[in-house]
Amino acid sequence: MRLLLIEDDLPLADALQRALRAEGFAVDHLASGKQAVLALESGEADAVILDLGLPDMDGLDVLKRVRERRIATPILILTARDSTLDKIKGLDVGADDYLVKPFDVSELLARIRVISRRLGTMPDTQIQLGPVTLDTLGHRLLVQGEQVTLSRREYMLAKALMENAGRIQSRQQLETRLYEWGEEVASNAVEVHIHHLRKKLPEGFIHTVRGVGYTVNK
């Protein structure tokens, strides 16, 4: 799942990006409302975390513009505005959720997991396919009950494939799940990660659909 974080408090944004990446999300960050509107029009983000107190335009105006353009990307407001009226206004304008600062990161992560389940990108906290189990809460992959050590990219790749079991994922789709804006991506990066991941999974678990992409069976 790819998240767009719109937050002008850079220390907070850095901390949130670290926490979200540790959960296996790809996270892009912007500090400008106008840039956020343009980014959302591209359709690359699966969900958005939106601060309201942005330097160039109010976050509610960002939300209004996005919804007026019929962009349905789920948006979670993250703000210090804590009155009931503020919450009602945000939800009425089109927010999917509203979290007040200061907040517990674990609560934010739980709310994002709820959004993921609504989107169908995280159908359950545990996905079992034959002898392989993905525990998205514990960030673990188990083969026949034994935990397998994965790099961050390998975990994200396993998650992307297993959440979409039965559906072919192209190299471009997988790159979008694994890499963020500005990251240099080698032309064979996905193939290299697939190669290493295959060594840690049962033989034949990941299937190559030549010229199209990769898949795992349901």
From TrEMBL:
GO biological process: regulation of DNA-templated transcription
Domain of life (superkingdom): Bacteria
Modified sites of kind 4-aspartylphosphate: 51
Pfam families in the record: Response_reg (PF00072), Trans_reg_C (PF00486)
UniProt-listed PANTHER family: REGULATOR OF RPOS (PTHR48111), TRANSCRIPTIONAL REGULATORY PROTEIN TCTD (PTHR48111:SF67)
Recorded coiled-coil stretches: none
SUPFAM superfamilies in the record: CheY-like (SSF52172)
Chain residues forming the annotated DNA-binding region: 124-218
Name of this chain's protein: Response regulator transcription factor
Every Response regulatory domain range: 2-116
Residues of the OmpR/PhoB-type domain: 124-218
Keyword entries, A-Z: DNA-binding, Phosphoprotein, Transcription, Transcription regulation, Two-component regulatory system
One of the record's GO cellular component terms: protein-DNA complex
Molecular function via GO: phosphorelay response regulator activity; transcription cis-regulatory region binding
